[in-house]
Amino acid sequence: MNTPDLFASAPDPAANLLPFDGIVNDYGAVFAPDEADGLLRYLLDEIPWRHDEAVIYGRRIVTARQVAWYGDAAFDYRYSGATRTALPWTDALLAIKARVEAAIAPISPTRFNSCLLNLYTDGTQGMAWHSDDEAELGPQTVIASLSLGATRKFALRHRRSGEKRALLLQHGQLIVMRGATQTHWQHALMKSARVHAPRVNLTFRTFRSLSPSS
């Protein structure tokens, strides 16, 4: 598998890490190590984590990974055959969102109205190949992904050609997927028995239309 390490040198946020049919930008660490440590402790202790659910081949399963969903309103997010209702932002999450929006503004200015958080307690937990292509996100969507905690391998795979790219996401690092990435590429978080520490991933998103819960 062709999975070059894209961190041989300091990242250039303007560089596209994909060869075609999409755009992925690497902003490097947007939080200093001590800041990132504090954010990770807050998220592990204060977020009301719950195991995710998915419907696969008609069967409802509960994942080892845990999630939390926040947004501007109590709107529903439907993926993998299940529905999640957004919680109201905390002050800490709004501060993180503001930092992320400021970091990406020179290249892809975006205001996010929601965030899906994922907790992987160790390397035995990952995410299978998928695209964030739900209708609510719309075409050419922008997704900012912030990593906190253990370094994990993040991979991308082109839907037609099968070409792959991979990178190691480190503590405090921010990447952004935009353009046609979700249409043409899938991504995954690879498992590793060598990782024994937790990782929290915050994926900031923008819904085209909100559907408040009743």
TrEMBL record:
Keywords, alphabetical: Dioxygenase, DNA damage, DNA repair, Iron, Magnesium, Metal-binding, Oxidoreductase
Cofactor(s) demanded: Fe(2+)
Protein name: 2OG-Fe(II) oxygenase
Superkingdom per UniProt: Bacteria
TM region positions: none
Domain Fe2OG dioxygenase stretches: 111-208
Organism, as annotated: Vandammella animalimorsus
Cited InterPro entries: AlkB-like, AlkB-like_sf, ALKBH3, Oxoglu/Fe-dep_dioxygenase_dom
GO biological process, one term: DNA alkylation repair
PANTHER family, A to Z: ALPHA-KETOGLUTARATE-DEPENDENT DIOXYGENASE ALKB HOMOLOG 3 (PTHR31212)
GO function terms (MF aspect): catalytic activity, acting on DNA; demethylase activity; dioxygenase activity; hydrolase activity; metal ion binding; oxidoreductase activity, acting on paired donors, with incorporation or reduction of molecular oxygen
